């Protein structure tokens, strides 16, 4: 079996080949205006490489779900599942090497960005034993790695941009090869685009996009005009996985298509204007009732999708053998060591989880004993001095705090532990460190928020000392300087 695939032909009719092994190491950037054939190119690349490598498609418009019919991809409709289900599926995808299409079309833009960020981050944070090679194709990448936040929140942009940056900058060592496609290079974050070494540039009309495309292809600015003249389905290709000099390629045929197909010309009905007027302005009671809406298909249960991932046609790797008998004491010791080694700034959860896995292997475990969601909870406990999850003293505090957001759990548990042990109220510095911030203002807003939720009650005496009560425990911290 060769590792090269054909994506089309050059001007003389010779096939243009893509070395898939080289592509895994060097990544790919595709640009093309709407109607240039960009999605057709991605479909050709996916169809040709399907027998060679695992594929993960981030599909904001649902264009690639038809790959399931011909090539056995598992389709995940993100709108049907909660975040925890998406995390579980992403972990199983890496474990079982299943090719999947994550369809985001039923979500709004901000929800698409957050879902894609969660999904990509979980792929990125997979245990080392599951670092198998995979093509990760992201269509409309300018949505997930935008230059500016636009109509979405800064938080959504930050999460999505971080996940895309990890994919393109650090994904190679984890077996993840980013293939990103965009309509506008000028709208795509430069640190994401700059990590690709292979390029397929289609038709574009704006000067700023032509200039960036010419720079990436190593062409002079005056040569950029030819990008404007490219026909639909023609791209300029360059890169170590394709060719060493720019070459024009006509993309070949594909076996599958979008669910809606392509739009063709359809002449309007030949009806006189008077007849149209009668049809449009007829009294409502004369209108025939509209046909009943087609019933929406029932969402596929998450467990069913997980079973499909486990039964994917690609070979299932042998599951790592974990030392479960000794894992809990090691987990507690590793978490306590990590908290002791922390500086003032709290690293991102993905970096902490990677450090956790390395420390566990250094202690003799064959793999990390916690998945990412469980690690976040246990690390929050460790920050509050509750590293041992089996200690029954912490059960009530965890119960009271279970409704809080994940990033608020650590500062709440710090307060709860102080209340349970009659210790002075944690100061702003300690709460800020547990919350992952250095801003006193954010700490004050955090306390106000938890108080509005009824989880805590803060009091400040005339001397300026603060104490915080936890109604769910019936206890309060001792007063201390805030």
From TrEMBL:
MF terms in GO: ATP binding
InterPro entries assigned to the protein according to its UniProt record, in alphabetical order: AAA+_ATPase (IPR003593), ATPase_Atu1862_pred (IPR014588), HerA-like (IPR008571), HerA_central (IPR002789), P-loop_NTPase (IPR027417)
Taxonomy, superkingdom: Bacteria
Listed Gene3D superfamilies: P-loop containing nucleotide triphosphate hydrolases (3.40.50.300)
Keywords, sorted A to Z: ATP-binding, Nucleotide-binding
Keyword Hydrolase: no
Limits of the AAA+ ATPase domain: 24-214
Keyword ATP-binding among record annotations: yes
PANTHER family for this protein: HELICASE MJ1565-RELATED
Name of this protein: ATP-binding protein
Source organism (scientific name): Sphingobium ummariense RL-3
Lineage of source species: Bacteria, Pseudomonadati, Pseudomonadota, Alphaproteobacteria, Sphingomonadales
